Amino acid sequence: MVLTDAAALAEIAGSGFVDGRFARLKEKKADSSVAGSYRTLGIAGENTLIELFGGELAGGGLSGGLVFSFEEPGSSKAAHDLLDESGVGHHHDLVRRSVPGADEQQPWYHLISVGLGDASPFVLLLNEVTQEYFTSLGAVPEADGTLPRRAYLDAVLGGPAEQPRLLEDITSVTLHTSPDRARHIADALTPFGYEEREAGDVLEVAGLGFTLRLRRGTADDVERVAELGLALNPAAPPPETREFRFGTSELVFDTATTARWIFS
Question: Which end of the chain is flanked by fewer CB atoms within 10 Å, N or C?
C-alpha cells in the first residue's frame, strides 16, 4: 500500500501504457468495518498487488503499508499463536463488508494488525480471506483447499491477457523508517522464516523470494514507502521507453526482467 499524490494517481490511472502494457488495473471503492470508506487503484502482477491511495489513506496519518496474505485456511489462528509466542504485539479482527442484497455486513477476511509503535505511518497486516468471500468472487480453490492469491487476483481483475503484460510480481520493498519501527517490523516477520541481515543503515529482512529493505533514518526523516522492486515477465514485449514519470513517482525499467517504481 502506497500513499501518493492525487495528481500522480490520476496520471497512472489514465496511462494507456500502465493499463494496456504494464499490468492489470482496477479502481476500488470499499466500505470496511475497520478502515471505513475509501478508494484505491490496484495494479496487479501474477500473485501480488500494488495498491495506490491518492492523497488520503484509510485510517488518516498513514503513508503506506505491507499486507501479507495466507492461502491455507486456518493460517490466521496459527499466525496469531506464533506472534503470541514471539512476544509480538498485534490485534486480530474479522473484517466485514457491506454486500448488495445482504442486510448485514458479511465476513470478508481475518486480519492481524501488527503493532509498530506509537503514531506509526505504516501498517503491517496479515490476512486470510474467508471461503465465502473467495467463492463469491468466482475464484476457484485448489484441490487441497488452499485459496491461492493468483486465483483471487484473476477473479477480481481478470486472468492473463493474450498479450502478456510486463508486471510479474513485487520482489522487494524499501521503506524509510525510524530504527524503532524497523525493529518492530523485523521482529514481526522473523517468526515466519524471514532472515535479517545488516547492510549499513539498512536492515534487510528476506525470505520466500521477497526482500524488505528498512532504511533507518532520524526522527526528522519522513517515513514512507520509497521504492518497489519488480520482476518482469520475460515473455512480454519490452517497453520502448526506459523511464515513465507519473507526478512524484517514476517507473524505471533497469533490465529486460527487472524494474523499480520509485516514490519521491
Answer: C
Provide the 3-class DSSP secondary structure of residue 152: helix
Kindly state the cell numbers that stand for 164.
Answer: 502478456
Amino acid in position 66 = L
Question: What are the grid coordinates assigned to 129, written together?
Answer: 480471506
3-state secondary structure of 114: strand
Amino acid at 102: A
CB 65 within 8 A of CB 15: no
pTM tops 0.85 = yes
> Of the candidates 117, 112, 225, which has an alpha carbon nearest to the alpha carbon of residue 213?
225
Q: Give the contacts of 113 (CB within 8 A, at least 6 positions apart).
A: 90, 91, 92, 93, 123, 124, 125
- Residue 88 cell numbers, joined: 509480538
What does each of the 264 residues of the chain score in pLDDT, given as a tens digit? 999 888 899 999 999 999 989 999 998 876 655 555 667 899 999 999 999 988 766 556 889 999 999 999 999 999 999 999 999 999 999 988 888 878 888 888 999 999 999 889 999 999 999 998 998 899 999 999 999 999 999 999 887 767 899 999 999 999 999 999 999 999 999 999 999 999 999 999 999 899 999 999 876 678 999 999 999 999 999 999 999 999 989 999 999 999 999 998
SS (H, E, C) 174-187: EEEECHHHHHHHHH
Return the biggest CA–CA distance within the chain: 55
Structural domain boundaries of the chain?
2-263
Strand-pair category, 210-216 with 167-177:
parallel
Cell numbers placing 130: 474467508
237 DSSP 8-state letter:
P
